[in-house]
Fold this protein.
Amino acid sequence: MLNFIHKKKLNIFKQLKLEEFLLKSLDTPFCLINEGTKSSIILGISNNVSDLVQIDLAKKDKIPIIKRFTAGGTVYVDENTLFVTFIFSKKSLDITFFPEPILRWAENFYKKVFEIKNFKLVENDFVIDDKKIAGNAMYIKKDRFLLHTSFLMDFDDKKMKKYLKIPKVAPKYRKNRSHEFFLSPLKAQKKYSKEEFIQKIKITLRKFFKIKNFDLSDLNFLEIENKETKFSTTYL
């Protein structure tokens, strides 16, 4: 049984806190899809904000800067970002809980979704040809993991250049390319619309799992969120 959550424009800060709660407080498997969010900058737990973000410009334009609880790179997200998150326990997914096997499992899953020969995992990113279409962030506990993927349905190159610095440590395949030449929006593939892509994810999930739509009201998450729960996800 896989609990399925589908939201539209859930604030990314709330989404990350929800993911952290589902990962750390429950033991059941989840898939969460969120269609877009307001413009935000998200950093990995170990990222240094001054090295990666044009802080003054972001604050001037009131762009929230958030440090998530997972590892991974720094990204600019907005209404054109499609988030897909998997949370599994060892009892619900029979793979080794280390980064490489987890990413390979996800690569094989999305190969069935995309049905495109040139889709593949390169380092920690999903690419088509040599251009990044999605980045991954991960958290692994002893017997439970979370994989959070941000798909670029489209992206605003000007805003990425404005708010993000080119990282000193970047994937080798990036080859110092700017966002314009390193990234590729999924809309350029013209294979699926966003709605069709989400539907294809659901269809592929049903080949492997029994899907149960999960009502967040069952968790009373808003009440949990307002209590003094310790979340690693924070605003900077």
Observations:
- Helices lie at 12-25, 49-52, 55-60, 99-114, 157-163, 179-182, 194-206, 221-226.
- The two ends are 37 Å apart (CA to CA).
